[in-house]
């Protein structure tokens, strides 16, 4: 196997950005992606200047097309199943689900995160009328009758206050959680309604929410809103490779993508284990790639002099 300079795992904005930066630095790299980007359920992506409102798949296709300008970049549409460290030279052997193997000096983990929902039926509406990020989708839902669904008080209060800027017609639904008196008072002073009964069902058509039904039989009419999921990494590569992880799930780095494991770098939502915007994830990918290229340069300069 020929030794690659770097393998980038994940073709979201951070992985695409990292690949572009390394390709322009004339590094021999491979980008692996299996199409599981969590924003693929969204019809439009927002907040990325010059690309506001673009479909996520179109954004990705533009990024991949740009990478074709750089001959040192190879792209593989497949899943990485195993990463093994070669302790003899501190390189890594990466194996795909179809049995291909690649050897690389450095790895950028950019596989992102995925959502988990505690409320039944949310995925039928997620990406069309229910969203998790008001900065991404709040403008499109402005002034509509909205719901905030959260089963933890801190999250419910934070999101409700945030969404109130886009719509004053707001109901907070806690799916069985009773808010504290202080929390109730905070919301009620802005006339934000609270429903603490457990949710029985979400009702709507073709992904567009119409009503929320509670176990009591009561229903409320809502045309969309925001739900706060939990997030997890779809793989354990950071843990398996020995990267230090904080108590909150974030990977410990030097601030520019280097993890506590030599030659392992990380970017985007994979690093924080929390949601991020396209533009911030892309910036993270650029920073990690610059760190990779800087380290390769310093490690080889003395040998070439």
TrEMBL record:
Gene3D superfamilies: FAD/NAD(P)-binding domain (3.50.50.60). Signal peptide: none annotated. GO terms for molecular function: oxidoreductase activity. InterPro entries: FAD/NAD-bd_sf, FAD/NAD-binding_dom, Ferredoxin-NADP_redctase_2. Its cofactor is FAD. Residues 5-277 form the FAD/NAD(P)-binding domain. It holds the Pfam family Pyr_redox_2. It comes from the Bacteria. Keywords: Flavoprotein, Oxidoreductase. Homodimer. This is Thioredoxin reductase.
């Amino acid at each position: 196997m020929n030794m690659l300079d770097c393998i980038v795992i994940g073709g979201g904005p951070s992985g695409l950005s990292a690949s572009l930066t390394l390709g322009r630095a004339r590094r021999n790299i491979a980008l692996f992606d299996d199409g599981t980007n969590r924003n693929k359920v969204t019809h439009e992506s927002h907040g990325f200047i010059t690309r506001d409102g673009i479909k996520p798949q179109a954004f990705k296709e533009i990024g991949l097309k740009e990478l074709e300008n750089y001959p040192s970049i190879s792209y593989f549409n497949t899943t990485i199943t195993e990463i093994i460290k070669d302790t003899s030279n501190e390189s890594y052997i990466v194996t795909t689900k179809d049995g291909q193997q690649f050897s690389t000096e450095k790895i950028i983990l950019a596989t992102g995160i995925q959502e988990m929902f505690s409320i039944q039926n949310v995925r039928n509406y997620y990406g069309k009328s229910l969203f998790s990020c008001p900065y991404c989708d709040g403008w499109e839902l402005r002034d509509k009758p909205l719901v905030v669904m959260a089963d933890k008080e801190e999250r419910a209060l934070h999101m409700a206050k945030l969404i109130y800027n886009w719509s004053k017609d707001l109901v907070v639904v806690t799916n069985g959680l009773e808010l504290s008196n202080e929390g109730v008072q905070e919301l009620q002073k802005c006339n934000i309604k609270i429903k603490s009964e457990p949710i029985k069902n979400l009702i709507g058509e073709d992904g567009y929410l119409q009503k929320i039904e509670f176990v009591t039989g009561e229903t409320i009419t809502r045309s969309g809103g925001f739900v706060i999921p939990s997030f997890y990494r779809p793989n354990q590569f950071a843990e398996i490779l020995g990267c230090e992880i904080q108590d909150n799930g974030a990977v410990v780095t030097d601030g520019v993508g280097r993890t506590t494991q030599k030659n392992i770098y990380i970017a985007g939502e994979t690093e924080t284990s929390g949601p991020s915007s396209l533009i911030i994830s892309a910036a993270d990918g650029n920073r990690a790639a610059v760190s990779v290229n800087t380290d390769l340069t310093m490690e080889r300069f003395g040998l070439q002099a």
